C-alpha cells in the first residue's frame, strides 16, 4: 500500500507545478485585493459607474469593429485612447482629489509624518461639546434646521471663504441665534474650528452618493458631501422632522440620540482614539436599532 502511494506521489505530484510562494507574495495579493475592492466601491458610489457602462459599450463597439476588420474605426479608437485617459482625469478630478485626501487622512500615514502638527490642533473643550449637543436638540425640538461642520485636521479654508467670516466663541445661545429662521446667517452651514465659529452661511459640496436615501434633501446631502471631502464631523438638524443626524467619512448616522452625538464629538475631541471607536458606534447602532444608517 505504502509503495503504491509513494509511486502515485512520485508519478503525479512531482509533475505538478507548485510556485515558490513567499510571504511578500501573500501580502501583495492581500494589498491588491483590498485596493481592487476599494476601487469597486468607489466606482459604485460615484459617477464612475456611469463611465464604466459607457466604456463597456465602447469596448463592445470596438470589438465588433475588430471582428469585421473596420480599419478606420480601429485607427480612430487606437488614437483616441490617450485623449480619453486625459479626459477621464479631468472629469474625475474632484473624485480623485477626494480619494487622495482620504489617503492622506489615514492615521497610519499621519503618525509616520513626525512634523504633522495638525494632529495637535484638533481639540476643543467640553463646553463646546455641551453647547453643540444642547443647541442641536433644542433646535430639533422646535424644528429649526441647522448644519454644523466641526473641523478636524483638514483645514476647511476654501469652504470657509464661501460664507461670512465670524470669530465667535461657541455657546448654545449663539448657535440658536445663528440658525433662527429669517435671520441673515441662518442659511447654509457654520464651520467650527476649535472652540470658535469661524464662518457662517457656508456652501458645502453636495454628495453624489447614489445610495443615500431619496427622502434626504440638500441639507443632508451637503453634510455627507462635506464628510466625503474632509475628516470633519457634520451635525445636521432637520427642519422637517427635528431629527439630529451626524455625518463622518461619507456615512450618515440618522436620528441619533443626545448620548450618541456627545459620544461622536468626544471621539474627535481627542483624535488618537478616532477611527476604531467611531466604527464601533456605527456597528452598535446597526445591531441594536432599526434607525436608518446612510
Ligand atoms: N450645499 C449646501 N451647503 C450648505 N447648506 C445647504 C446646502 N444645500 C442646502 N443647504 C441648506 O439646507 C437648506 C435646504 O434644506 P432641504 O430642505 O433641501 O434639506 P433636507 O435635507 O430635506 O433638510 P430638512 O430635513 O431640514 O428639510 C437650505 O436652506 C440651506 O440652508
TrEMBL record:
Please tell me whether the keyword Transcription is annotated for this protein: no
Q: Which reaction does it catalyse?
A: 2 ATP = 3',3'-c-di-AMP + 2 diphosphate
According to the entry, every stretch annotated as the DAC domain falls at 93-258
Which of UniProt's keywords are assigned here? ATP-binding, Cell membrane, Membrane, Nucleotide-binding, Nucleotidyltransferase, Transferase, Transmembrane, Transmembrane helix
- Coiled-coil residues are none
Task: Tell me the enzyme class.
Answer: transferase
Which PANTHER family does the entry link to? DIADENYLATE CYCLASE
Q: Which NCBIfam families match?
A: diadenylate cyclase CdaA (TIGR00159)
Function, as annotated, reads: Catalyzes the condensation of 2 ATP molecules into cyclic di-AMP (c-di-AMP), a second messenger used to regulate differing processes in different bacteria.
Q: What is this protein called?
A: Diadenylate cyclase
Q: What gene is this protein a product of?
A: dacA
